[in-house]
Amino acid sequence: MEGILFALVPMVAWGSIGFVSNKIGGKPSQQTFGMTLGAVLFAIMVWIVKRPEMTSQLWIFGFLGGFLWSIGQTGQFYAMKHMGVSVANPLSSGSQLVLGSLIGVLLFGEWTQAYQYILGCCALILLIIGFYFSSKKDKDVQKAELHHYGKGFRSLTYSTIGYVSYVVLFNNIMKFDLISVLLPMAIGMVFGASLFMSFKLSFDTYVLKNSLVGIMWGIGNVFMLLAASKAGLAIAFSFSQLGAIISIIGGIIFLGEKKSKREMRWVILGIICFIAGAILLGIVKA
């Protein structure tokens, strides 16, 4: 029970990032930069408390991972701008799960048992159905909105590539203790965010307020570790991915994103499929 409670923290923390940051406001580059500043602050505090051993290899790959993360997060913020949080976030989470799982299977042989292939394929199908319905629009949607969706999907494309590359780097290529790699990764995140701002850095109100979102991200990471140690990685993984539900609800309630009755039915169906797919993937990874 304790592990499940721990797992709820990253679900809420990560799931809230999108609508909290968009409620604060700012350009996507400002949102990412502010978030990375908060992440660095959190990482420094963790380093002071834990004092983990820092190797040159950890610094190099941690920095690279943070840079890849910044690509993913910036793209996600741009997608949210064009599509809305309640649409972009579940699409982002779903595409990461699908692409990440396929890479894990095809390149790293993560699935070895017959039941893993059966459940895994069912999970991927459910995820695809889920993020199809979560982004489905009424036929009478305006052309201008569809144009924004095109921009959103392009942003999601490079966001997914960045995020999945970051996950593959840390999960399949190099395996580091999260506490140890947190500071190098946070510095890489700041570098990437600065690059997206062409190093024309500004510490304005939007940036400083968005640093709180970075602290939320850090807290989610720590509790993800605690959840994995208490309840196992499968439970922690499954619950963390359900943060997309928080994003959908938060986008609609707190950001006032409009949904028709038909779209709400599609969203609910998408959420159900997404939950089922994430849980099945968690079982496969157990």
UniProtKB/TrEMBL annotation:
The keyword Transit peptide does not apply. Pfam families: Sugar_transport. The keyword Transmembrane applies. One of its GO terms (molecular function) is carbohydrate transmembrane transporter activity. One of its GO terms (cellular component) is plasma membrane. InterPro entries: EmrE-like (IPR037185), Sugar_transport (IPR010651). It is a multi-pass membrane protein. Its main location: membrane. Keywords: Membrane, Sugar transport, Transmembrane, Transmembrane helix, Transport. It comes from the Bacteria. The chain crosses the membrane at residues 6-25, 32-50, 56-79, 114-134, 155-173, 179-199, 211-228, 234-254, 266-284. It is found in: Cell membrane. Belongs to the GRP transporter (TC 2.A.7.5) family. This is GRP family sugar transporter.
